[in-house]
Design brief:
7-stranded mixed sheet, 10 helices
Length: 321
């Protein structure tokens, strides 16, 4: 299914030898961006594949072809250490905070059992969650938790896809560099993300304040008894701590053992208030452009990428993990 913004210049690139064999390929998803007031075509650089025996030349050619020219804009949020070195060599600018993934435990023993199953049992749980429940119940009684929401705290409500399409651009409008998220393009991304069911059910929830105003929303894969994988947390500026607190209460109350998501500069103040939350390296995030105003925005963290404006929804990352 082709992206609404597709054209040959921003689509997937392959290196084909004279004999017709394809030795390397770089998958890319075109996405239009708003950059310092201007709309420009951009592309998400995704999975990079190469023949381990005869793909070195092709891989080098594809990397060199990424060198930004003029008003080019590309970004990547899933680079490996090797790709990181290549992107730095051709002028890529890192988004350091987004190298990290946060993990917030609600039921730590269950979360540990889930990680053990993912790593050593190929996703099979073999009754481990059932064995973990008594230990988590004891921990939740002994250790302080979230407790009840304070009076007047933000609350979580269901959010339909059309409502999300209408509000998402507004909730990221304060970023200097952000996806345009026109209705056609964002609905296409939502459609693809919803087809990825390995991590759970694609879910959107709004966060409203006591007056009923939508101050944020979050997009995640719901999997009660397992991990909630959060794709995006959107918020009005300055309301991130309230949005995060409401989100974590909701994910706890709906039975998840933990939640995971990408760190972003604007979320760090709210994330730092959470108990049982840790950070770990996930992948390197980069921007490739010659436009100085974009590079300046990246340096100060005034850029929004990740989740639906990134690769975390892709089945290429989850089905072959």
């Amino acid at each position: 299914m082709e992206s609404p913004s597709y054209d040959e210049a921003t689509g997937t690139q392959v290196y084909e030898q004279q004999d017709g064999r394809i030795r390397s390929a770089l998958l890319a998803v075109p996405m239009r961006f708003v950059a310092c007031g201007n709309v420009l075509p951009g592309r998400l650089l995704g999975v990079f594949m190469t023949d381990p025996d005869k793909g070195a030349v092709g891989a080098a050619q594809l990397i060199l072809a990424l060198r930004p020219r003029g008003a080019d804009f590309a970004f990547c949020d899933s680079a490996s250490p090797t790709s990181c070195n290549h992107l730095l060599a051709i002028g890529g600018k890192p988004i350091p905070v987004q190298n990290l993934e946060w993990a917030r435990s609600f039921r730590p023993v269950g979360a540990l059992a889930g990680r053990f199953g993912e790593r050593f049992l190929r996703g099979r749980r073999l009754g481990l969650p059932v064995l973990a429940r008594p230990f988590d119940s004891l921990l939740r009684r002994l250790l302080p938790g979230e407790g009840a929401a304070e009076p007047g705290a933000a609350s979580v409500s269901e959010m339909s896809v059309p409502t999300f399409l209408a509000h998402a651009p507004r909730l990221i409008a304060h970023y200097a560099v952000r996806p345009l998220w026109a209705e056609e393009e964002l609905s296409w991304l939502v459609f693809l993300a919803a087809r990825n069911t390995r991590l759970g059910a694609f879910t959107i929830r709004s966060v409203v304040d006591r007056t009923g105003e939508i101050i944020g929303c979050f997009v995640y894969y719901a999997a009660s008894g397992r991990t909630a994988h959060v794709l995006n947390v959107l918020s009005l500026p300055g309301r991130e701590p309230a949005v995060l607190s409401a989100m974590f209460r909701h994910l706890d109350n709906t039975g998840h053992v933990e939640a995971r998501g990408r760190a972003q500069s604007a979320l760090m103040a709210g994330l730092s208030l959470q108990r049982w939350l840790v950070f770990r390296h996930r992948a390197f995030a980069f921007v490739l452009t010659r436009l100085p105003e974009i590079n300046d925005a990246v340096a100060r963290g005034d850029v929004y990428v990740g989740g639906l404006a990134g690769e975390d929804w892709s089945r290429l990352l989850t089905d072959f993990h």
